[in-house]
């Protein structure tokens, strides 16, 4: 079979790899039907995640069909169509018992495409398959479902819920990539008064408007501080969500938040960011970080089935598996291609 293999910083290849095989009784093997690329994959290729070793198959977001199950798998059968979560959960350790699956100490957490081979391949091994997959109803398309593997629960849990978005809040989202747009979609569930989106690319700001942002700020043209202060009577935003992962965007978030407000960091940071405690400590600002736990995935799936989440415009480019490397090129150049999420399917 073939997979997208990481060869060290800046190196990737779609090439032959050993067939996926059961390694533990709790494993399942899926035929990968639809898979997508994450910004985290680009961070890996940029050398920002040193735990990923050369030779690793990348990817942690997929929809597939079960083709084999280990003897310890009780809730899946061959032929089941499933969502493979970005987070694997042993279901036994202290953190799993508290629904903090991202912090699993029993061999799970974020391991796919990180510490074990991922799902950007023709077939994939899914550890802890009973706890780490979700059966999909027929009315949910592969393209919609794959967005629930990572970006929707990540934005909802690490951004919106950690930021404690409430009705009437002014919410600022810094970064209008897929994670930022998913934060807009899920923040709207709480009826904020305003959703402000800040980005440097006009095409992404246009997408943010489509997904429900009502105020758009283009860096380099508009001053985010001036816009937010004018909107809030000089106070600052109730919630600021960081969805990029650079020192500059994090520091901007801390400048835009009001006294007593919340900064929710989602972005994956590859470099240190300065925390200006000399000015923040007196303002009662709460800063949260987090790796997604995916405890909200079942609820998000219910909302998707009920038509409460409109994800129809999130996928902008589609490829076959033979074009995986082209898919990476397109996703890595959003300013030139207009890419949001790209999907690769059989």
UniProtKB/TrEMBL annotation:
<dbReference type="GO" id="GO:0008270">
    <property type="term" value="F:zinc ion binding"/>
</dbReference>
<keyword id="KW-0862">Zinc</keyword>
<dbReference type="InterPro" id="IPR013154">
    <property type="entry name" value="ADH-like_N"/>
</dbReference>
<dbReference type="InterPro" id="IPR013149">
    <property type="entry name" value="ADH-like_C"/>
</dbReference>
<keyword id="KW-0479">Metal-binding</keyword>
<dbReference type="GO" id="GO:0016491">
    <property type="term" value="F:oxidoreductase activity"/>
</dbReference>
<dbReference type="Pfam" id="PF00107">
    <property type="entry name" value="ADH_zinc_N"/>
</dbReference>
<dbReference type="Pfam" id="PF08240">
    <property type="entry name" value="ADH_N"/>
</dbReference>
<dbReference type="InterPro" id="IPR011032">
    <property type="entry name" value="GroES-like_sf"/>
</dbReference>
<dbReference type="InterPro" id="IPR002328">
    <property type="entry name" value="ADH_Zn_CS"/>
</dbReference>
<feature type="domain" description="Enoyl reductase (ER)">
    <location>
        <begin position="8"/>
        <end position="344"/>
    </location>
</feature>
<comment type="similarity">
    <text>Belongs to the zinc-containing alcohol dehydrogenase family.</text>
</comment>
<protein>
    <submittedName>
        <fullName>Alcohol dehydrogenase</fullName>
    </submittedName>
</protein>
<dbReference type="InterPro" id="IPR036291">
    <property type="entry name" value="NAD(P)-bd_dom_sf"/>
</dbReference>
<dbReference type="InterPro" id="IPR020843">
    <property type="entry name" value="ER"/>
</dbReference>
<keyword id="KW-0560">Oxidoreductase</keyword>
